[in-house]
Amino acid sequence: MNAHNPITQLVATLVQLCSRVPHSFTALLARFSIAAVFWQSGQTKVQGFAVNLVDGTFELGMPSLAPFTVALFTDEYKVPLLSPELAAYLATFAEHLFPILILLGLATRFSSLALLGMTLVIQVFVYPGAYATHGVWAAVLLYLISRGPGVVALDHLIAKKRCQ
Question: For the chain, how far is it from start to end, CA to CA, in angstroms?
C-alpha cells in the first residue's frame, strides 16, 4: 500500500493521536473504575457503613457483616479451603481495603495483585461462566500491575521523594 494513500495517512494520524493518551490518565481511570467494582461489591456485604461517591450515599457508622453475607458464602460462593465465615470476612475486608489503596495510588501494584488473585478465585471457583467480566477486571488489574498508578498517585510521590 502506498504511504501517500489518504486512508494510510488517516490511519497513521489516528494511531499517532491514540498514542498520545497519557499513561497517567489511563491509569487514573483504571484505578477509579476497578476500585469502584470491588468497593461496591464490598458495600453489599456490610451494614452500618456506606460510602458511594457517585450517588452521594454516606453512612459513617460501625460496619458489620450484613446478616446474609455468611449465608452467601455458604450457599452460593462456596470458596474451597476456607470456612464460609472466614471467607466472608476476608473478602469483605479485601473489597474495602484494596480499592481504597488503589484509588489513592498507594501500594497500587500489590493491591492490584491481591484483587487479581481474588478475581482468579471468583472465576475458577465461584462464577466460571463469567469470564468476560472477569477478563476485563484482570486486564485492568494487569495494566496497573505492569504500568503502575501514574503520576496522580501516592506511590509516585513516595518514589519521587525517595529519589531526592
Answer: 50
